[in-house]
Amino acid sequence: MADTCIRDCHALVPDTSGALTVVRNQDILVRGNRIAEIRPTGRPPEPGVTVLEGQRMLAMPGLINTHTHVPMVLFRGLAEDVSFERWFNEFVWPLESNLTEADVYWGALLGLLEMIEGGVTTAADHYFFMDQVARAVEEAGTRAHLGWAVFSSRGRGVLDETAAFAERWKGGAGGRITTCMAPHAPFTCDDGFLRASVEHASRIGVGIHIHAAEDMNQTNASVERRGLTPIQVLRDTGVLSVPALIAHGCGLLPQDIELLARYRKHVGIAHAPKTYLKLAMGITPIHALRKAGVAVGLATDGAASNNTLDVFESLRLMALMQKHEAMDPEVMPIAEALDIATRGSAAAMGLGDRIGTLAPGYQADIILVDTRGAHWQPPHNLTAGLVYSARASDVHTVMVDGRVILQERRHLTLDKERILAEVAGTMERMARRVPEARIQRYQP
Amino acid sequence: MADTCIRDCHALVPDTSGALTVVRNQDILVRGNRIAEIRPTGRPPEPGVTVLEGQRMLAMPGLINTHTHVPMVLFRGLAEDVSFERWFNEFVWPLESNLTEADVYWGALLGLLEMIEGGVTTAADHYFFMDQVARAVEEAGTRAHLGWAVFSSRGRGVLDETAAFAERWKGGAGGRITTCMAPHAPFTCDDGFLRASVEHASRIGVGIHIHAAEDMNQTNASVERRGLTPIQVLRDTGVLSVPALIAHGCGLLPQDIELLARYRKHVGIAHAPKTYLKLAMGITPIHALRKAGVAVGLATDGAASNNTLDVFESLRLMALMQKHEAMDPEVMPIAEALDIATRGSAAAMGLGDRIGTLAPGYQADIILVDTRGAHWQPPHNLTAGLVYSARASDVHTVMVDGRVILQERRHLTLDKERILAEVAGTMERMARRVPEARIQRYQP
Fold first, then answer.
1. Helix, strand, coil % (nearest 5) of chain B?
2. Strands, E, within B207-318: which ranges?
3. Is B56 left (phi over 0), alpha (psi -120 to 50) or beta?
4. In A, which residues are within 8 Å of B431 by CB distance?
């Protein structure tokens, strides 16, 4: 792979105290798949290095989507203005019975198109037919953390298959793919199933990606039924003893946060605020989690609730909602919001030493955000711009693992026309809905 | 002006029950500055009519920004993560002492550039040096409702000047400009000043655009100081007896809503949710207002709080926040959100019979939203797309008063390069901040 110099960009980097700040007019030298050097612009580029001009571009770590169901873009707009329970039982779980392996492949590619165009370089995907998602990620050139979603209603045997997937693709796509076990949630997976998932995870050397305490109703139902919060169930079944990525935690109680703090070295929370607002699930207690040292990352969730896979929007909503809920505009200042979007998300996925930071030695997952638009002018404050003005459509160039995959908004790895045509062709079939054909029943 | 046929677009129109819906494959015929006909596509266009191809475009009424301070884009990003009181006293009101007439002109043009690119065809602007804003609007070709902001600390005489402005520009720019009196707020304008504003408004035949009950602190302070809510002050001073556009109403009490209901024929509320979240002001009680028959419209407020002038973002935040605050995802369904964004905003400004609806006889303020992006696919649900997927950058074509002013995102009326250069040239001066030089003190 050719080495690259991103010339004369502004760069979002940690200052000497570790706080994220924008340093103007920098060159970023990438060697192979890693960042080699970030230095003030001016020196002629090394011989043989490909130069990417970065004037008036803001370089930042590629965005990380810590919890999504990528192929659900196929159901975009089909479950609107309905309760959480109806969303599952009458819409999403019946719709998902339509899916074939090929649908998941094309759906994953559509979601990847959208995410790449929005500067997302890594996604933690929790879905079905995951070999197809892995294949799509391999082609797209992005990074991904993949787990095959399962319910215990399918019997213990499915875990062997999903574990085989996790083993097959661990370190896949030249190291860009990491894998995990992905039991759906404590209310859809019995304790034995969760324990067996943990055993598989330990044996393979991976973690677990799971939904838990999604809202306060689930927490209350769990406490009522068995005297334990969903997080306590995760502790008792061993889930917290392996690397665990937990969505969404809007139903966390103070004792849950204390508990999570004990496992903070390898447990993270995925926060997907647009879904929470749209489905009225409450809001993850981010301040308390971070105070307890638990990593929090940004997520979109699937497009059947969020409608898009736009992490810039998640970032903005996260910051706005933390201020609103605390009734204090000084809460969640810009540097902290950007910390969550970058280092927080990387840490929540257990990849904090490899991605989420622009610094020598890190993987070269870098996006260039175009700051020339009218909505950025005048550019008094570029960090404020990233949180409060940036749009997914400002993403100009995307590099993953040292390779440019989007340049001036043109895809270099994916055939956009073909993907859109394939998805258009299955649209009608995707929208058919037979409630009795649902893949699972929501009953927390 | 040439007549135009927008051919084969999807159109957001009222169905027979009045609910907004998208009808696919329509031709919209515009004659002069009005919509003449909306009909299924297929008939050859009338001779001499200019054809605008609308395939896979969604035509909707131009967005309306019912409360903003357009030239404040000059201060974008300069007042971040601070309390409401510090936002005024330490940042915005000192910064505004930097403004010259020329700054307001170029600032207005920058804000208009941004709004046109985001599909905003009408803005209610509440600011200073308003002749400059009117001049900018005239050049841009947009529609505007303009009021010159004043505080009673400046003495009663300023009202003569701002009334002269309202008279001078009433019906200006070929009828695209309407005007009003714009006393700042009940806590910055004494009762006599408000009464005099009403007298001027009545004499000229215009309304009043004012801030009131912006948050609960202002309401509490008013009740404590004088035993009246800000809305009761507006009633007592006669403001509610003329057409009144009120921002922001996050501090409305139930008795205020009852009071507003009595004046609902000519009173509207401007709702700017991003500012409220960012400054932790609470949320306008939209459901109660609409139940009481009071028109509610969407707004951005100024870019010093919002950071952008993006009404698509206001629409999305409005819908999401109403669900969240009610803890009910069935609240504020898509059709209602779109009703607020179109007919609600027009009604709040007293222009409900002229703009905000795609139907024969209405002014031809039409935008084409490009639905071809990955984040719209597959297009199962275009109304959901408008509320939950659309980005300002999806706006492809903008027509105001029958004239195309943005085509394929190119400006036809404004010189973007020149405007950005002028604004860049004053950027440093705009950012200087001398607290003692503030134009007013915040002390509700």
1. 45, 25, 35
2. 207-212, 244-248, 267-271, 295-298
3. left
4. 380
**Interchain contact, B378 vs A430, CB within 8 Å:** yes
**Subunit contact B320:A278, Cβ cutoff 8 A:** yes
CATH architecture of structural domain B4-61+358-410: Roll (2.30)
Nearest CB to A324; choose among B277, B329, B384: B277
pLDDT in tens, A187-246: 999 999 999 999 999 999 999 999 999 999 999 999 999 999 999 999 999 999 999 999
- ipTM tops the 0.90 cut: yes
Query: What is this structure's pTM?
Result: 0.98
Nearest Cα of chain A lies from the Cα of B201 at a distance, in angstroms, of: 34
Q: pLDDT tens across B192-222, in order?
A: 999 999 999 999 999 999 999 999 999 999 9
Give a three-class secondary structure readout of B192-208. Answer: HHHHHHHHHHHHHCCEE
Q: A74 and chain B: CB distance < 8 Å anywhere?
A: yes
Torsions phi, psi for A341 (to 5 deg):
-65, -20
A375: preceding bond cis by omega (within 30 degrees) = no
What is the C-alpha to C-alpha distance for residues A237 and A55, in angstroms, rounded to an integer? 52
CB of B338 less than 8 A from some CB of A: no
The answer to whether the Cβ–Cβ distance between A377 and B80 falls below 8 Å is no
Nearest 5°: phi and psi at B153?
-60, -20
Bridge partners for A53 per DSSP = A7
Contact assessment for residue B109 and residue B128, using Cβ atoms and an 8 Å cutoff: no
Distance from CA of A48 to the nearest CA of B (A): 35
Q: B63-348: which CATH number, 3.20.20.140, 3.40.30.10, 3.10.20.310, 3.20.20.70? A: 3.20.20.140
Please check whether residue A301 touches B, CB under 8 A: no
Domain ranges of chain A: 4-61+358-410, 63-348
